[in-house]
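2024-03-11 09:14:02 INFO queue: dequeued item Serine/threonine protein phosphatase, len=584
2024-03-11 09:14:02 INFO validating residues
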Amino acid sequence: MKTVLYTRIFIWTPIIFIGYFISAQIGFKIAFLNSQVSPVWPPEGVGLASLLLLGPVALPGIYLGATLANFFNNPHLPTAFLIGIGNTLSSFINYRIIKRVTEKSDPIYSTKDLIYFLSIGTFPGSLVSTILGVTSLWYWDFLSSELYFNVFFTWFSGEMLGFLIVAPLLYVWFHPKAKLKLELRKQIELLIWIILVYISGSIAFSDEWPLLFLPIPFVIVTSIRFRQFGATLSTVVLAFTAVTLTIEGKGVFARRDESGLSINDSLIFLDAFLFCISGIAYFLVTATRERERAQLASLKSLQFLNELKEKANEELEQKVLERTAVIEEQRTEIEKQLDMAKRIQESLFPQKEILPQGVDILFKNIPMMKVGGDLYDIVWKPEKQELGVFICDVSGHGIPAALLSALVKTSLEKWKQDPVDLKDNLESIRHQIIPNLREHFVTASLLHLYTGTGSLTFARAGHFPLFIIRKSGALVSLKPMGRIITPIFEILAEEERFQLETGDLIVMLTDGLTEAREPESLQMFGEERLLHLIRDIRSLPLFEIQDQVFQSVIQLSGGIAAIQDDLTLGLIRYSGITEETSKV
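2024-03-11 09:14:37 INFO prediction written
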């Protein structure tokens, strides 16, 4: 065992030493205030990534690289010795914290681990290294007392950026189990996006066009398209561009005072910007990875359960006929209970056909299981020519979601009495259901329409926009502000108004339609595809439009049994109240 350990140390020490030494020279190239103080210290990223990939075996290489790099830059052995200790300790302290709190070596594996990495996985080590390094320079008169705190802050910022930006890049790109396998076309696409990040960053941090927001969409797209590889590479390129231009006195973060460029003030704002950008990119990656893992686990669990059920049935048929009878009896009872639950939930939907004057209206719901968490309701007040429509989606599936949807149904009485004040009704619904929400949440929308005039009002709580397909085929989306319904935050809903014209088609839906996926490629049906389909057949009767939409979604999912969420679609076509409809 010791022989294997010594062999690994012997092999990796020179490799890490060379990498650390080269990255240190890059850091020294942009040093200021003192020849050993850099606004970005890439070697800390090398050190932390080496420890995350190899463990403590990397420590000798880190220490040798840190000591000799500093000695090579400033040939004074005591300072090089202490700075080397500080650099090594900083990487090791952060490594131990990350391992302890995440129980893994991947700092951007999950959202929780990423939060730990960004909050406590960079700060402690950076502080230790800064104290040792700056104090040693001051003690041996390489640094005046007047510049101590300026250098201290710059050193600390450089350490933080090294850990925050360089370490994830090296960890991702050198991890043996995370190879980037791209065909030539995708490689060219990645290169193009990185070039766009660099160009947009150069523009954003120029004095001529200080468009600070310009690189953000390119970093986001690169992160989404190429996951952790795109996120880490794009943030490094943007950070390099931002730092080099800022210390040259260019860009919006180049702060000046009476003595000239204020490096410390500049770095405060620059570090905050880079922290936010890298955090956004990393969070996009972790959120996407967690979503895919959850979906894959769900599919695998379903396949495993199906296989287990088949195997169990074979064994039971052969060995335990009596037990099979008992299980069949229990299954029948459960099915009866689910059928009863289904009938109860179906009673929550409008039970009789509603025929408002001036509109055609049609809603349909298909739950993922026998019961689900989608709900809709319709109110028609003919004496006022008022039509009210409510639609919501409770998080989760099955019986828990169905029970919560029943709770939502009981909260609609105030809305049914007066469907005009949408904001007040949404808050009323929230206050009635939040004691029972706990970890669940609800998205909802309310619509109010004067059918005589075509005056429409819409409000939502984290739900889909209201889509209106004009008779000409033009698409209008109403997107008023409104948070999802949770026990934590107020909804803060806003109302948006719109004037309908004859022939306009209103589309209301839940996310089961747009997020339906192909079983193999996991490609989603998508909002754009759904609206394009409805727009192409907008002149057909509502029931034909509805049938074609559900057939397309179910076919993409691989059949009715393979849908992954509850499906709800509502269609409202405005015709206006004519003299004939008024008599009816």
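2024-03-11 09:14:37 INFO annotate: The longest helix spans residues 263-319.
2024-03-11 09:14:38 INFO item closed
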